[in-house]
Design a protein that fits this description.
8-stranded parallel barrel; 5-stranded antiparallel β-sheet; alpha/beta; Immunoglobulin-like; 14 helices; TIM Barrel
Length: 584
Amino acid sequence: MRFGAQVTRDGVRFRLWAPAAKRVELVLDRALPMQPLPEGWHEHAVADAHAGTRYRFRIDGEVAVPDPASAFQPEDVSGPSEVIDHDRYDWKAPDWRGRPWHETAILELHIGTFTPQGTFRAAIEKLDHVAETGLTAIELMPIADFPGRWNWGYDGVLLYAPDSSYGRPEDLKALVDEAHRRGLMVFLDVVYNHFGPEGNYLARYAPQFFVAAHTPWGQAIDYANPQVRAFAIGNALHWLSHYRFDGLRLDAVHALAEPSGSLLLKELSVAVGDLAATSGRALHLMLENDDNRPGLLDPQADPPNGRYRAQWNDDYHHAWHLLLTGERQGYYRDYADDPRRHLARVLASGFAYQGEVSAHRGGRARGEASGALPPAAFIDFLQNHDQIGNRPRGERLSALTDSDALAAALAVTLLAPMPPLLFMGEEWGSKRPFPFFCDFHGELADAVRKGRREEFKAAYEADGEDIPDPLDRSTFQLAKLDWGSCASPQGQQRLELIRGLLRTRAKVIVPRLAGAKFGSAQWHDQVLMADWRLGNGSKLCLVANLSPGASPRPPGMRSVTPIWGGTCGEMLPPWSVLWGLRAP
């Protein structure tokens, strides 16, 4: 059974899964009784309904609720749902079939703060900048309908509806369409581990959606129930088919309540693989997973068949962040013993934690051996929404560390064979903060405000008056990207560095990436040396002096052809990064 309202040749068919409801009515301009069907489903077909019709469901004559699979909520999460006919949109790039995974270089962005207007349509105006920078994909933070006027997106409650503050469904389709016309893939962050705390009515008529367990963000979802799994899998296919996204990132799958997340994760990947095979499209699935489970990953399977292209590699970020800032609180303490060793390990074999005990996680073992996977299975980054926004003041690395040191870290990240990710504005070194923000009210707002302050006090010993209030409109405005700084001399200098690195990646490295394998990484005093075996048998070699002083050149770089940073002299300047190729 398909969730939601479906436009048919005879009108609109409305369906609701409400196994705990004794009676369900469809509320249009009149109330219509819905026919109960097996397994808790209710259905009613209306001949005079059409695209644009607004409706609710009334449960047991007591409460009117939106459709949990609503395609659009023009009046926010508690208002009526609107019927959308997805076949009406006239695609301008109908022949787009995507790009292969090894070409991926991502810019993560938040629609509401990416532009002054904060809309899908306004984001189109910045796509030329993204393409000219040399990035090949944009990734949208979650857009599923959330309560209020602004939100990071992880409090979504109506997972099929793009939030109305960003625009209508056809506006989102236009953004994806225009990105494809510029050769850009578009990925979407989706949240299947919990629903947001406000505007969700499922517990009233479908308590089977939930299990007696909690995530850090709310009650866990019961994916052992086949109807609940169908809801999430249908949602993934909804974004990929109706909106033609090129892939999805599944948020925090370690917080899925079912054992190992095996049922949902496998069935969702198989369903997406079937869509890719029948449509001839390249579709890519990514994970965020604190458990570091390489068995879930396979970047080379095409189409996906139960596994995922890659995982966001927090280990890479954490090692770099400690090296660049010296911060040791929170999860950084797991890397404080020797961040250089952890960095070498992620460059040589994927994860830093491959079964070792994590003090931050209560002394439990974390991760599994990952070196047998190809580098393409690990998405590496120096910043993302989490690592910036979950700080008390939302500072970026550009405000926390030396510019030359950060440039060196970028030169390593963007030319290593792992898919790189930048956070919006990072390409020109923006210092605009990205603090956490939401738009709740009443007791919930007070609870969120108090919880964030307690979290920051515990992790950062921060309890000052200058910590932005996450509920205040000014905090949302503070997070708006400062495009004017891109034109500054410093902004142009950093942007030219990023463009040069991505040009080199596209021209020299990407054509050799298919079939690449991990090699080795080690330190010689302050100098990092690493290499990877590329698909054509050549070796990609890195030498980086990651210190503020000159360092002697280690042996082993004389037989390579330089591709970035010049030749390797007897002494390496501070924060210098050299890349080269060694012939097969």
